[in-house]
L-fuconate dehydratase
Amino acid sequence: MTGSKITGFSVHDIRFPTNVSGDGTDAMNKECDYSAAYIEIHTDGDLKGQGMTFTIGRGNDIVMYAIEAVANRIVGMEVETIFGDIGAFWTFLVGDPQHRWLGPEKGVIHLATAAVNNAVWDMFAKARGKPLWKLIVDFTPEEMVKAAAFRYITDALTPEEALKMLKEKEAGKKQREEEVKKIGYPAYTTSVGWLGYSDEKVRRLTKEALNQGFNHFKLKVGADVEDDLRRGRLIRSIIDDPANMPAGRKIDPATIQGKNAGPTGCVLMVDANQVWDVPQAIEYMKKLEPLKVWFIEEPTAPDDAVGHAAIRKALKPLNIGVATGEHAHNRMVFKQLLQLDAIDVTQIDSCRVSGINELLAIMLMSAKFGKPVCPHAGGVGLCEYVIHLSLIDYIAISGDMTRNVLEFVDHLHEHFKYPCSINPQGRYNVPLDPKEGYSIEMFEESMKEFAFPGGTYWVAAAAGNAPKPKHRGIED
Ligand SMILES: C[C@H](O)[C@@H](O)CC(=O)C(=O)O
Ligand SMILES: [Mg+2]
């Protein structure tokens, strides 16, 4: 695919009615219509870039406007100039002399920057005929450091240190790439335990997930402690029972090290989506101690690094870890979480921070501080994105996937031209199509149906006769 100059773009408001079936619900977010604020960048050739950021519905109204404002600045730019120094391009993108006041580097303007930057990286990968992860793992260590966003984090990690770390990993890259292509990348499922699901549905989905090969399961908690204990015990009763294990199932002990695994080696995690104050989080999690979870995710406000550190310290004697990051709005928040030893797991989000340049910096910091990166994927399009990030982390940065599990939610993949997929061992397959870029291109028919408010689904919904959505999870 070729093109020399960016000539324009279109922005699309795509919303899926996941709220109908309670998919995506948690103690904080009880009405989720998984939505993509989606951009397509056009060039004077056949090269195009698709990108998006994620919201849970009405947020699209606002972020769409911001995407337009950010993207206006790149019209007329030469693509090879951008690709020649993508680090400088990122600095330009976050450095608008007037938009910067809106963040800086956080909130709606940063979500919009993510959509645009994701689309540019998608275009870069397509121009080189590689899926995005491959484009980046083929970078030299110098190229990767040049692409990463180091501003404001050099007290935690300098470019020179990063270069040394990357060079140390160079020799094993080829072998790791071959290995992960063969066995896939470890995954966990959140699809069994959304807050809005009945016990019956949790039971059915947990059994299905076990048979799909998963051995890590995440449950939403924080609305009612008795409900949480009942639902958690229900999942544990299924995943801890050897009779429910698929034939021939063997769990590598290395992958459960340090985790609160049950007798079959299966692991449970819980996610509170920020509902608690710090002391409440500690008290509540003491009550959930019988569930023997590996970590509590987002126990409190996402910007509160000191609060996370206090929770982690208090829960350590119970062998409960702390994870966060899906709402950590930039690399500086991750820096503080890591410097304060406030987390056990780094949960980067492909659409919250400003795209690949910033994500590279966060993954490099996590590797330096010895924390596994387990990206967030609960949303539309996020699973498609994050497999690329985990592959970059494993092949080129950390060189380790023993403690890592990448989130998987089983919703809405059918709308993407290059959907992610899971192998029979419950692991992500490696995206291999040279035309897929960052894997986020949506089918035109899907966009026509779910464009808001004019798509066929939403027009029918406004008239009171919405067709029953067909997405997975809708059965009961
Ligand atoms: C609102 C989203 O579905 C959120 O609950 C996702 C999430 O926290 C996760 O996947 O983790
Ligand atoms: Mg979460």
Remarks:
- The mean pLDDT is 95.
- The pocket of magnesium ion (ligand 2) is lined by residues 271, 273, 297-298, 326, 376, 378 (CB under 6 Å).
